[in-house]
Design brief:
With 285 residues, this protein is of the alpha/beta class. The protein has one domain: Rossmann fold (3-Layer(aba) Sandwich), CATH 3.40.50. It contains 8 helices and 12 strands. The strands form 3 sheets. The chain has an 8-stranded mixed β-sheet, sandwiched between helices. Strands 4-5 form a two-stranded antiparallel ribbon. It has a two-stranded antiparallel ribbon with strand order 8-10. Strand 1 and strand 2 form a beta hairpin. Helix 5 crosses helix 6. The chain is globular and about 45 Å long. The two termini are 28 Å apart. The structure holds 2-acetamido-2-deoxy-beta-D-glucopyranose (NAG) (4 copies). The site of one 2-acetamido-2-deoxy-beta-D-glucopyranose (NAG) has 2 residues, from loops.
Length: 285
Amino acid sequence: MIKRLFFSLCIIFLLNNNNRGVNANSYPDFKYDQNEALQYLIFSYAAYCSGNDIQTWNCTTCQNPQIKDFNIVSSIFNITTNTQAYVGYLSDQVVVSFRGSMDVQSWITNFQFLQTPYEPYPSAKVHQGFYNAWLSVREEVKSAIDISLSRCGSGCGKIMVVGHSLGGALATLCISEVQGWYTIPAYIYNYGSPRVGDVTFASYFNKVQPNTYRVVNQKDIVPHVAPQGLLNYHHVPTEVYFPTNDTQDYRVCNDSGEDPTCSDSVIGLSIYDHLHYFNQHCCCR
Ligand SMILES: *[C@@H]1O[C@H](CO)[C@@H](O)[C@H](O)[C@H]1NC(C)=O
Ligand SMILES: *[C@@H]1O[C@H](CO)[C@@H](O)[C@H](O)[C@H]1NC(C)=O
Ligand SMILES: *[C@@H]1O[C@H](CO)[C@@H](O)[C@H](O)[C@H]1NC(C)=O
Ligand SMILES: *[C@@H]1O[C@H](CO)[C@@H](O)[C@H](O)[C@H]1NC(C)=O
């Protein structure tokens, strides 16, 4: 499987020398912050814990000092699409976190590229499986955010949506709608996200949600899925790329979504790098 994927990635890499950017993109209006990014990574990893332990916030990852003061409101699971998320709040913000795939290897092996029109902006296309997964929890996520906002009170100034791996893709689809539901600002940090949709989607997304940091660790294989250019798949900006395991050594990439000097400059085939963002072992532990 790795061999076959490697082969198709090479072909795409060779064919794809036209880095059609997205036009008139914007950067986030806040600076990338490594301490913040670490905290939201832990929130992302906690989504892999069992729903029951998340609901009582006694999962092992939940007890991490970075996130133990979280007030959980709702642990959400759709059995049909096998999609898990949770929603709650800290003193000044609501956090929504999506779980990634429990078995990365077979998830990549069985990866389907099929796209579907994106309802809020139908000329854009997004990955069909990701979109169905998001839609299957959308109503529950919305009511959990409503409850969180009412409990969190007037000090609550933002909504933060996070996720690792497939969870990063779901976070992207989630925030693309969430930013339109409320008047307070929404932000997203995601880690090792696959490409979510086509270049039209990336452009639309950047227009509605420029406050996005998409973190990529070294040669993580997942951000290279689906290959750039295949069905016009294109990453959303703004990538933050870590070329080594030194967590102080990163670059904030340009607003094209596909900065050729960032993770696009390597052929990423590492599952290890996918599971070790900031040297923190994924997932629930
Ligand atoms: C968390 O709480 C649940 C329900 O109270 C319990 O079944 C589970 O064993 C607890 N887990 C841990 C890690 O303490
Ligand atoms: C779970 O997802 C399926 C398929 O999208 C949907 O038909 C069903 O209503 C969802 N269940 C809940 C409880 O939302
Ligand atoms: C980072 O990489 C270096 C060399 O590549 C290795 O010696 C070191 O153990 C790694 N650190 C961690 C925390 O994985
Ligand atoms: C991004 O950076 C690359 C390499 O420096 C450059 O070729 C490309 O035009 C840039 N794209 C945008 C939209 O700035």
